[in-house]
Amino acid sequence: MQRTIIVGASHAGAQLAASLRQEKWSDEIVLIGDESALPYHRLPLSKAYLADRSTLADLAIRSPDFYAKQRIHLLNATVEKVDRAAGHVILHNGDALPYDKLALCTGARPRRLLTPGADLAGVYYLRTAADCRQDPGGRQPRLSRRDRRGWLHRSRDGGLVASAGSGGHRARSDRPRPRACHRARGVGVLRPDPSGKGVNIRTDALVEALSGVGRVREVALADGESIPADLVIVGIGIEPNTDLAAAAGLAVDNGIVIDDQARTSAPDIVAAGDCAIHNMARYGRRIRLESVPSAGEQAKVAAATICGKQRKIAALPWFWSDQYHHKLQIAGLNSGYDETVLRGDPTRDGDFTCFYLRAGELLAADCINRPRDFMFSKRAIAQKLPTDRTKLSSPIAV
Ligand SMILES: Cc1cc2nc3c(=O)[nH]c(=O)nc-3n(C[C@H](O)[C@H](O)[C@H](O)COP(=O)(O)OP(=O)(O)OC[C@H]3O[C@@H](n4cnc5c(N)ncnc54)[C@H](O)[C@@H]3O)c2cc1C
């Protein structure tokens, strides 16, 4: 009887475990996670869960029955070390658990704000369900009941900025998904009506310091402006959890380096999700994608690799997000574009698509409430279909 151990029980880990069974791995699967909940969807954390409109059970990626039926053993523990020579992982309680195959799905943690005052009360990060609930014994400040209820309770569906804004308070952010989404278009359209939601988005604004006596009261910007604040939620990106991999001697470079079959630099260890980085030939460089679709796709490939099958990570990244009533879908990465073509009018319509081209070739598309454009773009970019600008800007389906 062989054993696959998966470290990290979230989007990538849960998918990998399920895919192993689909790929006919009949032996043991142990899914180890240091969060006490069943693997859950992170997306609603900044939306319905934060606003108390859903419970952790509602957010579960799979039901408890699923894991039991599929003989996926869930273990709530922290893996402290991978001992490759011995072929086992060491848990926080000192137990050593042998593996035949190992998958690292350790994800990422929020990047910390390093400005003066960043450790004041009232400054929060949001990555886990525990971050949304007060946990006095925890190692980091959790969103207190008072803060959550007082400022965020009335939130409507939207991202983090949207949730804060609907409570009638100011939020600071650039645009959603800045790496993937066009600056001008993303900000212009996804910015909610300021008069309706009370959200004031500042772009190109550098936070220099937070101040207050014991608790945050003010945010100082580099241009000299001072903004009163009762609550600050920091969303300045994430850092991949690569410590385990690095200590085990695996190649790490802003992520655990994997090939297009999700193999790390050690043959019996795969990795997937936010912690992993791989070379994308299409873009000529290594890229670490931070998204649910990508975590899922990499996990499926990793499961196939463990089962001795040859599958490759999809060449085209894609993303989605909900911002207020807008459904944002993004196909491809727009870096290096030299032209944009618009279908629809962002200033007037609730739906539009922004196509990005380089030397006439379609590179990426931001689709706002336009699922058909998204499907078309995914196919056209992946297959490098010839693109006709006139048709792209036409409202008729291409
Ligand atoms: C509020 C919010 C909104 C989001 N919205 C979107 C969206 O709209 N669209 C989208 O595509 N993506 C979105 N994301 C990003 C998405 O959630 C991530 O891309 C996804 O969670 C990555 O999954 P993962 O399994 O790779 O990593 P993670 O979700 O980070 O999970 C890694 C897990 O491994 C555990 N772990 C780490 N080290 C160890 C260890 N040594 N031992 C045991 N366990 C360990 C961690 O505690 C964690 O539970 C959002 C994220 C957040 C927080």
SSE topology:
Layout lengths: L2 E5 L3 H12 L5 E6 L30 H6 L2 E5 L2 E5 L4 E4 L4 E3 L2 E4 L3 E3 L12 E3 L19 H8 L7 H6 L17 H8 L3 H4 L9 E5 L6 E4 L4 E3 L3 E3 L3 E3 L2 H5 L8 E3 L10 E3 L4 E5 L4 E3 L4 H15 L11 E6 L2 E6 L7 E5 L8 E7 L2 E8 L2 H12 L6 H5 L5
Parallel strand pairs: 1-2, 1-7, 2-3, 7-16, 9-13, 15-17
Antiparallel strand pairs: 4-5, 5-6, 8-14, 10-11, 11-12, 17-18, 19-20, 20-23, 21-22, 22-23
Helix pairs in contact: 1-8
The protein binds flavin-adenine dinucleotide.
Please state the overall shape, judged from the principal axes of the Cα atoms.
globular
Look up the CATH topology of the largest domain. FAD/NAD(P)-binding domain
Query: What is the architecture of the largest domain at the second tier of CATH?
Result: 3-Layer(bba) Sandwich
How large is the count of helical segments?
Answer: 10
Please outline the major beta sheet: 5 strands, parallel
Give the names of the bound compounds: flavin-adenine dinucleotide
Low-pLDDT regions: 135-141, 153-180, 183-187
The averaged pLDDT comes out at 85
Quaternary assembly: single chain
Description:
- The protein is an alpha/beta fold.
- It has 3 domains: 3-108 and 239-306, FAD/NAD(P)-binding domain, CATH 3.50.50.60; 112-234, FAD/NAD(P)-binding domain (3-Layer(bba) Sandwich); 318-392, Enolase-like, domain 1.
- Helices cover 20% and strands 26% of the residues.
- The strands form 7 sheets. The chain has a 5-stranded parallel β-sheet with strand order 3-2-1-7-16. The protein has a 5-stranded antiparallel β-sheet with strand order 19-20-23-22-21, with helices on both faces.
- The longest helix has 15 residues, at 292-306.
- The chain is globular.
- Flavin-adenine dinucleotide (FAD) binds next to helix 1, strand 2, helix 8 and strand 19.
- Residues 7-13, 32-35, 42-43, 45-46, 78-79, 105-108, 126-127, 241, 244, 273-274, 290-293, 295, 319-321 line the site of flavin-adenine dinucleotide.
